[in-house]
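Task: sequence design from structure.
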């Protein structure tokens, strides 16, 4: 759902960019507005970014619907204030009124359209139907947004940030867009700029920690853990920070603390949501691991309220997790060698044969590393509920992307095998197909 709002914000910005220049050049009433144009452009850009940020926070669960409504109304109020104080070059009352009316029209177009579109979609559509990170992939198709179009929008935003380096909302939108595209190094850099400008924003700190953990191989120890702790100091009810704090504790073997963090997050999350279900699965895993530790020490083998899935002997759980891996080798067909460069990105992944497109495990390399021996296991999972050990067989594949984008694009080179059993070794993946 986060990706839905990011794409929405980018596409609305592009649409406004196509409409507003003409209106600015020939505003209603024909008044000379040169002096007010620059100021109003800046203000409206900030307000649009704030609206995009607001929608993203609602999608991520860091604010509820009531907080979203109050903040949205505040943005509307600021728009009205802004359009009521514009001035024209003329010093006459008529001249000032003439200047205000055109900018009122532009402000309504620039801000009210996104607001109305958001409200209409909430009433008529279903934003939750688009699930991240598969959302961007789902949007790519004959009638959808192509990867090239998204890349173009992101480049425009990145260029804009060069001339607006102190725009925290812009850095935040750019960071979240890179994150949705799985361009994690770029996302980390943008989050660093955003948190430098807004060091007391708990959600930003948690988002930055999340991306840094991905870059550390799904490990949150070190700097990510410090950012998570700071985020919880600022906002003890921040959902992402609580979820990540549980992961930090789990990695350290502090299963009691992991369960405490995840339980609190689950209580705050929307009931029956994917997020809540993932937290529940994480709690079950922690209880199973906790039971194993207790059994080793001579205590009870499992907690009293363990589910059938986690109530098995800890040795079986540990063994299953340890065996939940796939190893193999990726090679490139000689016929396609001329189509790649050493710096092109290679994604090696495992995903469910049916169901969510979210990778169960993923490795990022470059063409220069080919041929590549790989191991995919549970430590590379993006979610406790979506990992290799939860599936008997998977699709294992590899894809070469010139853009480094996790979204498949026309011209990408790929190869995959379906029905690979968990625990398989020596799987041979040949990249021999060009994406149409």
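Answer:
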């Amino acid at each position: 759902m986060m990706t839905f709002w990011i794409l929405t914000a980018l596409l609305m910005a592009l649409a406004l960019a196509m409409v507003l220049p003409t209106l600015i050049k020939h505003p209603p009433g024909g008044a000379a507005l040169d002096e007010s144009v620059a100021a109003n452009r800046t203000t409206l850009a900030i307000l649009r970014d704030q609206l995009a940020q607001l929608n993203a926070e609602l999608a991520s669960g860091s604010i509820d619907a009531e907080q979203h409504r109050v903040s949205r109304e505040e943005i509307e109020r600021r728009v009205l204030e802004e359009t009521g104080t514009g001035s024209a070059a003329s010093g006459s009352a008529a001249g000032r009124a003439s200047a205000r009316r055109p900018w009122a029209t532009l402000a309504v177009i620039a801000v009210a359209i996104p607001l109305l579109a958001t409200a209409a979609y909430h009433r008529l559509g279903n934003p939750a139907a688009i699930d991240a990170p598969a959302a961007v992939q789902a949007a790519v198709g004959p009638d959808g947004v192509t990867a090239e179009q998204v890349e173009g929008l992101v480049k425009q935003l990145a260029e804009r940030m060069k001339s607006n380096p102190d725009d925290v909302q812009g850095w935040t939108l750019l960071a979240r867009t890179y994150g949705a595209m799985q361009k994690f190094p770029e996302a980390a850099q943008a989050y660093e700029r955003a948190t430098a400008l807004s060091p007391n924003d708990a959600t930003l700190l948690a988002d930055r920690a999340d991306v840094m953990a991905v870059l550390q191989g799904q490990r949150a120890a070190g700097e990510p853990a410090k950012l998570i702790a700071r985020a919880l100091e600022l906002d003890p009810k921040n959902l992402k920070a609580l979820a990540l704090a549980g992961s930090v504790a789990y990695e350290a073997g502090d299963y009691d603390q992991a369960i405490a963090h995840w339980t609190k997050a689950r209580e705050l999350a929307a009931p029956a949501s994917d997020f809540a279900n993932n937290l529940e699965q994480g709690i079950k895993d922690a209880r199973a691991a906790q039971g194993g530790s207790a059994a080793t020490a001579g205590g009870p083998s499992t907690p009293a309220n363990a589910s059938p899935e986690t109530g098995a002997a800890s040795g079986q759980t540990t063994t299953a997790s340890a065996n939940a891996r796939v190893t193999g080798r990726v090679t490139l067909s000689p016929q396609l060698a001329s189509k790649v460069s050493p710096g092109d990105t290679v994604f090696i992944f495992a995903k469910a044969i049916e169901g969510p497109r979210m990778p169960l495990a993923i490795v990022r390399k470059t063409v220069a590393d080919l041929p590549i021996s790989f191991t995919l296991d549970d430590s590379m999972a993006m979610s406790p509920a979506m990992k290799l050990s939860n599936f008997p067989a998977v699709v294992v594949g590899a894809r070469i992307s010139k853009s480094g984008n996790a979204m498949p694009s026309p011209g990408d080179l790929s190869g995959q095998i379906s029905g690979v059993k968990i625990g398989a070794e020596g799987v041979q993946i040949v990249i021999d197909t060009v994406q149409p």
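The first helix runs from residue 2 to 25.
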